[in-house]
Amino acid sequence: MATTNGAQPEGSYFEQQRALLVSDIAASLENVLQNINKLNRSLEGVIAVGNEFGQVEGLWSQFENVMAKEPEIEGAKNAKEGAAEEGAAEEEAADMPGQRARLFAVGTKTGIVLLWNMRTPAPKTWTASSTVGPVRIIYTESPQISCLALSSLFLIHGGNDGLVQAWDPLGSSFQPIRTLSSRFASRARRQLAQAQASPQGVGINLFAAGALCLDPDPTVLRGMVSLGVRILYWSYSSSAADQYKSQKRRLRRTERGSNNGGAQFSGAARSNLKDYIANEKFELDREKQHRRKEAQRFAGRFGTELMGGSEEEMLAYAAMLSQETLEQETLRR
User: Fold this and answer.
1) Which UniProt key words apply to this protein (predicted)?
2) The pLDDT of residue 299
């Protein structure tokens, strides 16, 4: 169709609009291609623009492949980070003393104590065995284990023969640290063996350690055990801690019914000050009396204040007595 008055034909107008649209689409796809190349440099594509209808053939096949591989890449990255975190946690636990172990002990009827670590790490692969082996196996001298007590520092076992011993569960020694209660006499053990062999059985065993109780603080070596109708109590302390004892006066305890501190004075009233001075005087008198009694007991036991003399006078007196004794023995001979 032709037009007059210098107007352009309709076909050329539509071709211009189609060319502009094709150029816009091509520019948009070029931007998309650049972004995809930044994310994955291995991605390559070709943009084809048709001359007649402006059809565009894009990168759908390769783009779908990249999008399909993205979860696998993320999964591998997460697995690598998880393995690195587990390795760091294991190294941290290995550097920690005891490796944060939580011990669990079981006593058997054959006199054996088994210890497991309840925080043993699980196997990383499904092919590995999930069985947790015992950390320590203790062979005691008791025929049977009747009671157990376990803390973070030591293990105490009680046998049906009255034997009570303390063990170091994580130490290198296979011998008990201390025997708290020795077994009963051979006659009692023989009677116990005969009772076990009889049809009636043992019944109430008055020789066995019935129950054990330890101090909640594992650093305090204190506890008790029931042996038949008796209760045995023990308490041990380290002699190395004596050098840290101070000669200063100990702080007073808080007064009954008062919220004030034991060693601090609070309150500006005159009556409070008088009461405070009276309490301090009473505490000083009581400590002087306590020291006097300790000095008298020490002198009576070791004879350090015999005849009220000094140390040099006591040495001279002892030398004189020794010389007299030597002279008397010489005369007798």
Assistant:
1) Cell cycle, Cell division, Centromere, Chromosome, Cytoplasm, Cytoskeleton, Kinetochore, Microtubule, Mitosis, Nucleus
2) 75
